[in-house]
Amino acid sequence: MNPRTVARLWIVQRISAAYLAIAVIVHLITIIYAIRGGLTSAEILGRTQGSLSWLIFYMSFVAAVAMHLPIGLRNILSEHFGWRGPSLDLAMLFCALGILGLGARGVMGVYL
User: Fold this and answer.
1) Of 28, 64, 68, 86, which residue has the fewest beta carbons closer than 10 angstroms?
2) CA–CA separation, 78 vs 82, rounded Å?
3) Which helix (H) or strand (E) element contains residue 24?
4) Which top CATH class is 3-111?
5) How many angstroms separate the CA atoms of 111 and 54, rounded?
6) Where are the domains of the chain?
7) d(Cα 35, Cα 52) in Å, to the nearest integer?
């Protein structure tokens, strides 16, 4: 693979990791706040459904995972199993699209 492409993938994975660290903390704090407040799942859904802020937050969370996970998985498959080339790139593209599609579906299920 082209060294520039490897460098770009490395940068994307590090940026997505930094975002995910913050997003996971926000997500966990929100869960702890909701549970300690005695909210039921129905009450939580009532507060999050239709909220554009939560939609944007969780869609960006899904997008970051869809970028981060395939890059790391690609490195593992390449280093440990010797899988390289266009077939690996295509498999990781489908992995990213799958994560993006399923995650977006979940987020939209909560939003709508």
Assistant:
1) 86
2) 5
3) helix 3-36
4) mainly alpha
5) 8
6) 3-111
7) 22
